[in-house]
Every structure is written in C-alpha cells, then in structure tokens.
Amino acid sequence: MKFFIDTAETNVIRELAETGLVDGVTTNPSLVAKLGRPFGEVIAEICEITPGPVSAEVVATDYDTMLAEGRKLAAIAGNVAVKVPLTWDGLRACRALSDEGTAVNVTLCFSANQALLAAKAGATFISPFIGRLDDIHIDGMELIEEIRAIYDNYFYDTQILAASIRGPNHVRLSALAGADVATLPPDVLKGLANHPLTDKGLTAFLADAHKAGVTV
Ligand code: E4P
Question: CA 159 to CA 54: how far, in whole Å?
Fold first, then answer.
C-alpha cells in the first residue's frame, strides 16, 4: 500500500519524507489556504521535496476554467496530479487532462457509481472520503470494498486512494479492503508505529542490557 501525506505544510512533509515511508502528497484548497502562501509556490516546493505524485486541486467549477487551471497546475512539475471534484464538469476535465498525459485525482467521491464514472473518465486516482461518510453514519469502508470489487470486475487501473482518514483503524481497514493508497494526516502516519507493548518491551530489554553491561 502506498502512503501519501495529507498536508500542505512543507516542513512536515520534509521531515516525514526522510523516513522513506512517504510515496506522495495530497493537498486540497482548505489545507493550502491555512498556510497563507501563494498556491503555485507551495505546490512547487512540495514537488521538489517528494518525487511521488502531489495532488493539487483546481478551484474552478466549470469545464473550461477547470481545464485551464489543471494545465497551469500540471505545468508546475512533472509529478503534479491535478485534483478535480466529482462533478460532470470535473469528469470532463478529467478525461481531457488524462488524454493529455496528466495524472488526475478525482476527489470528493462518496458513492461507488461516482467511482465508476471516474474510472471511465480515465482518472489515475479516485478519492473516496471515508471519514466524512462515517461522520454522517455511513460506513466509509463499505465504499472502499465496493469500489475495489467494481474496479476488479472490469480491470480498471484507477488507483483507490482512501482519503479523509481519521485514525489508524481507517488505515488498517483500507489496507484490508484493498485500497491502493491511503492519504494520511501526519499525526496518523506517526501514530501507526505506536504500541504500548512495544514501549514496554523495549524498556525491559534496555534495562536488562544495562544491568548486564551489554554493549554492541
Ligand atoms: C485528501 O485528498 C482529502 O482532501 C482529505 O483527505 C480530506 O480530509 P478531511 O475530510 O479530513 O478534510
């Protein structure tokens, strides 16, 4: 499973990229807006930090402007994946950008039929939003399972990018359901390594080694 980092904070991305565990980055307009920096500048900096796909989202809602914005974003760096919303205009823009050789991430997916449309439109990634479904008491994980089954039925190579992940359990369940990618808030990625028995075991090992004067 690939791990993307769901943030626009370049210092955090740089720190986590050093672990070798980061395969890409996703941003959205809300995440970029928090920084108060020019959009293009932030995306260019992230693209330099990581060679993996960096999702950058259009803010237009009509086809022509989405296409123009998508082309502008794609020109920033070779690893930009243009993010478009799952609307009719977004699907049209997805097809056009994909046909031009640009990677496209279709975002704000909340149903299996939407995911089917994105695959037919040539999306590189489909982003089902698990957490936001859970927020309204709909099982986000069922959506991942349904998309996996549909894509496998028809051999679509669109990658399922589990998004809106809120905690380690979402990561585990997305991996079990066959999502290709999970995009994780930085704290969730860091939290994946934690287990109280790991800490307890390490403390005991080190105490024994210290007592016996073991050195390496
Ligand atoms: C990533 O591509 C999405 O924009 C992000 O995961 C949304 O997460 P949220 O629902 O926590 O805002």
Answer: 14
Q: How far apart are CA 127 and CA 182, in angstroms?
A: 9
Q: Measured in angstroms, how far is the CA atom of residue 116 from the centroid of ligand 1?
A: 20
CA 121 to chain centre: 19
Which of the 8 DSSP states describes residue 86? S
Is residue 66 a contact partner of residue 90, using CB atoms and an 8 Å limit?
Answer: yes
Ligand 1 centroid to Cα of residue 129, in Å, is: 7
Nearest residue by C-alpha to atom 8 in ligand 1:
164
Q: Where are the domains of the chain?
A: 2-212
For atom 1 of ligand 1, the residue with the nearest CA is 163
CA of 126 from ligand 1 middle (Å) equals 13
Rounded to whole angstroms, the Cα distance separating 35 from 38 reads 9
Q: Which CATH superfamily is domain 2-212 in?
A: Aldolase class I (3.20.20.70)
Q: What is the pLDDT of residues 31-88, one digit of tens each?
A: 999 999 999 999 999 999 999 999 999 999 999 999 999 999 999 999 999 999 999 9
- State whether residue 125 is helix, strand or coil: strand
Of residues 136, 143, 130, 142, the one with CA closest to residue 183: 130
Count of CB atoms within 10 A of residue 93's CB?
A: 30
Which position among 34, 72, 83, 190 bears the catalytic label? Answer: 83
